[in-house]
Write a structure and sequence with these properties.
By secondary structure, the chain is α+β, with helices and mostly antiparallel strands. The protein has a single domain (about 5-225), classed as Jelly Rolls (Sandwich), CATH 2.60.120. About 25% of the residues lie in helices and about 25% in strands. It has 6 helices and 11 strands. Strands 1-2-9-6-11-4-3 form a 7-stranded antiparallel beta sheet, with helices on one face.
Length: about 220
């Protein structure tokens, strides 16, 4: 029995969820890199029809973003897959349901070694304008899992993926996770998971989804799925 067959048999008593099934298959194929920290490069992270549905959301790109290298500066402009948006947009609910699937959480734990017990799901849809950048940083440790899924197939955004860095003192650039439709990257936030988005020339909007599982102490409940 191959890996796919064994997974199918193991979960045969669980109703199918296309988002969950697509992601589980993607995670099996993911390329695991170990330096300068563990991260996984993804292809086909979401069902293609859900990528299209996210791109069709009637969510206007945020206006007046402050491009200072920190996403939290623009907290008031951010779009989350919270309860309200799940009621408004079916795709928000579908993706949230997929990543709430117990099989998904268990397989993430087995693959990455993180502990998702007691965590909450947090999903953000990002539309980053030309000039957007993020300074090298590590996610706060209340985040137990970070996954970025890029949404557009646009050569002008080829360099707009997530940069991987070594940590202090030099924050040496190592590589960039390629931006492209339904490509992505996973890492487990830690003191060594330095990443960012460099000052690359970006034309058009850099569209992506960020999926986190966060600890029970997360303060902003409206962000949670």
């Amino acid at each position: 029995m191959n890996v796919h067959d064994s997974r199918t048999a193991r979960y045969s008593d669980v109703p199918a969820n296309e988002v969950a099934e697509t992601f589980l298959s993607c995670l099996e194929r993911a390329r695991h890199e170990t330096w300068p920290f563990d991260y996984w490069l993804l292809e086909g992270a979401l069902p293609e029809e859900d990528v299209d549905a996210v791109l069709s959301l009637s969510a206007a790109p945020p206006e007046g973003m402050v491009l200072n290298g920190r996403r939290e500066t623009n907290n008031a402009l951010r779009f989350f897959f919270g309860r309200e948006n799940q009621e408004r947009f079916a795709v928000c609910r579908r993706i949230a349901d997929g990543f709430k699937d117990a099989r998904v959480k268990r397989t993430i734990e087995e693959t990455t070694g993180t502990d998702l017990s007691g965590t909450h799901l947090r999903i953000e849809y990002c539309q980053d304008p030309p000039g957007f950048w993020l300074e090298p940083h590590t996610d706060i440790l209340v985040k137990k899992f970070t996954m970025l899924v890029y949404l557009l197939d646009d050569p002008a955004l080829r360099l707009a993926g997530t940069d991987i860095h070594q940590g202090p003192p030099d924050f040496k650039y190592v590589t960039t996770a390629t931006y492209g439709r339904n490509l992505g990257v996973i890492f487990i936030p830690s003191k060594s998971s330095w990443h960012g988005v460099g000052h690359h020339p970006i034309q058009g909007l850099r569209k992506s989804i960020i999926i986190n599982y966060v600890g029970a102490e997360w303060r902003d409940a409206f962000e949670l799925a």
